[in-house]
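[Discussion] Sanity-checking designs against the backbone

I'm trying to build intuition for which residues belong where. Below is a structure token string of 582 positions. I'd appreciate it if someone posts a full sequence so I can compare it with mine line by line.
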């Protein structure tokens, strides 16, 4: 009799088992609305395609039209261009002088991308960042799907891709996205190495971790090591995995640092140890532990910076209480995974907070950990019927808000951008059309139309931004127009002078050999020695009694006035005529 009951009991247990990627029958919203059912079907069928389509639509349109973002973008692009033109791939240069503020991997990348075209371009540099951001989201999805389930992987990937910090850096020719991708690959490969069952798999994953860590160090230096060690310390907390984690972390660190030394040693050989060490110490150590003029912040700075940088995923922050290692009782791997993610996210945050010099962009390599934790907490809350009211409020707000947002944009956009009322009206109508198309296609169970409606909504929002905010920014920061005007007056290869501190964005945009003059007296000396014909200077640096220069044009760039001057023959005097303010 007992034997006859055992099979039926086993069958009963099997029928009550709930897959980890699906909600339990007791979870709220088990009978999902048509839109949710169809959207989930699309995500299960083509997750990578949908991820790349929607995030690509967010990042790529008008990526080359955004005004150059000052020093950060200018330095990266100009260093890569000088590397490509000079053929010196060992020591980066900026404005003709040695530039060791950052290691060379990012200029290498930009120069290699521009090499088939013979030039480093603004759009090409930004596409590199967008590609790294997309690859980062795909990597987080792949790891999250395998470790936490399909639903959590999708949540983490989209939470990361839509986060304010990553979305900002993905459209800039900066090194942050490349750093985040290499650091995340190094950390996830380390986790796989520490958990591998076979020696061959362990050492192959450890080698991948070390190579990725070396790339990350060659992108930005010590920040990658800090984040890697934070994740390794978290994974080492459970005693059962401590030895394996220590072995794998040591191997990865040795390989990563060794890879970085393959560049450092030749640089020291060429420039001399003292000169190279002085540059490395100032740029890679002092900038982290000491605050500069622009990055002195209190200890708690990174907490609000993280909350803002993670938006809109920050709205799911209450779910983090369900992700602590003590709540993971399913297996030893689950507990190690929780410790690993919390070490990566929280220990890194504390380590960066100890430094007096703080930058929000330092948090970018930690965002994958935070989004994976949020994804784990959200799926657990959904399966265990936790935070029901909060999740219901978010769902209703999203549903209602997407209907109301076009109307709010129509009203607010007309007031804020009266010069672009046609754009505001058309994009508001497009948003309503995309929302209605999504609702209809979901109820009609048309997955392809659901995807098209989502892509239309993203592109419509990007068009609204481009026709209003971007158009105004291009008028207020006319660097591109000013650079074209200056370049049109210069012959190919003709020099010009930049008066005042060296500005890489002017040098890159004009694309002619540039000489710098610190002040007006140095400019006068250059004039006496037969200086180049044209000078670009901030208006405040041009003295009223200046002679032997003619004012040709003037531009307002982000509220600052710049003048283009033309040298006159000695004794010709000053022509006071000035061009229009542009």
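Best answer:
Here's mine. Compare freely.
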């Amino acid at each position: 009799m007992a034997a006859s009951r055992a099979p039926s009991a086993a069958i009963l247990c099997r029928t009550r088992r709930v897959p980890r990627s699906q909600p339990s029958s007791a979870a709220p919203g088990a009978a999902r609305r048509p839109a949710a059912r169809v959207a989930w079907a699309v995500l299960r069928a083509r997750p990578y395609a949908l991820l790349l389509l929607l995030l690509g639509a967010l990042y790529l349109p008008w990526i080359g039209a955004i005004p150059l973002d000052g020093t950060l973008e200018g330095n990266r692009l100009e260093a890569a261009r000088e590397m490509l033109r000079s053929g010196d791939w060992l020591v980066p240069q900026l404005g003709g002088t040695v530039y060791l503020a950052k290691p060379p991997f990012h200029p290498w990348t930009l120069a290699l991308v521009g090499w088939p075209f013979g030039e480093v371009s603004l759009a090409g540099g930004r596409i590199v960042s967008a590609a790294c951001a997309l690859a980062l989201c795909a990597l987080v999805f792949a790891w999250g799907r395998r470790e936490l389930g399909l639903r959590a992987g999708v949540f983490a990937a989209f939470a990361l891709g839509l986060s304010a910090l990553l979305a900002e850096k993905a459209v800039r020719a900066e090194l942050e996205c490349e750093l985040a991708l290499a650091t995340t690959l190094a950390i996830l490969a380390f986790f796989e190495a520490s958990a591998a069952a076979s020696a061959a798999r362990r050492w192959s994953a450890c080698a991948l971790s070390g190579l990725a860590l070396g790339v990350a160090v060659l992108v930005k230096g010590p920040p990658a090591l800090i984040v890697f060690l934070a994740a390794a310390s978290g994974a080492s907390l459970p005693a059962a995995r401590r030895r394996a984690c220590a072995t794998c972390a040591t191997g990865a660190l040795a390989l990563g640092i060794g890879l970085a030394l393959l560049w450092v040693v030749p640089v020291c050989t060429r420039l001399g140890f003292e000169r190279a060490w002085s540059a490395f110490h100032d740029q890679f150590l002092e900038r982290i532990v000491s605050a500069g003029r622009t990055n002195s912040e209190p200890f708690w700075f990174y907490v609000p910076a993280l909350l803002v940088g993670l938006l809109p995923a920050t709205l799911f922050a209450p779910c983090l209480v369900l992700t602590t290692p003590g709540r993971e009782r399913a297996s030893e791997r689950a507990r190690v995974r929780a410790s690993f993610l919390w070490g990566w996210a929280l220990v890194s945050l504390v380590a960066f907070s100890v430094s007096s010099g703080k930058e929000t962009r330092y948090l970018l390599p930690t965002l994958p950990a935070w989004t994976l934790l949020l994804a784990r907490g959200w799926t657990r809350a959904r399966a265990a019927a936790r935070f029901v009211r909060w999740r219901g409020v978010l769902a209703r707000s999203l549903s209602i808000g997407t209907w109301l947002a076009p109307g709010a944009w129509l009203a607010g956009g007309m007031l804020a951008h009266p010069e672009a009322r046609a754009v505001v009206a058309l994009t508001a109508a497009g948003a309503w059309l995309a929302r209605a198309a999504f609702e209809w296609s979901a109820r009609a169970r048309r997955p392809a139309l659901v995807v098209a409606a989502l892509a239309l909504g993203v592109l419509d929002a990007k068009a609204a931004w481009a026709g209003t905010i971007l158009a105004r920014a291009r008028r207020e920061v006319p660097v591109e127009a000013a650079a074209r005007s200056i370049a049109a007056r210069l012959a190919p290869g003709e020099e010009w002078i930049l008066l005042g501190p060296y500005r890489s964005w002017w040098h890159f945009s004009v694309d002619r050999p540039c000489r710098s003059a610190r002040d007006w007296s140095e400019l006068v000396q250059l004039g006496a020695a037969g200086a180049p014909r044209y000078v670009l200077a901030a208006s405040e640096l041009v003295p009223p009694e200046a002679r032997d220069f003619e004012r040709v044009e003037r531009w307002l760039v982000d509220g600052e006035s710049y003048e283009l001057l033309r040298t006159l023959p000695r004794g010709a005097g000053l022509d006071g005529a000035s061009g229009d303010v542009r």
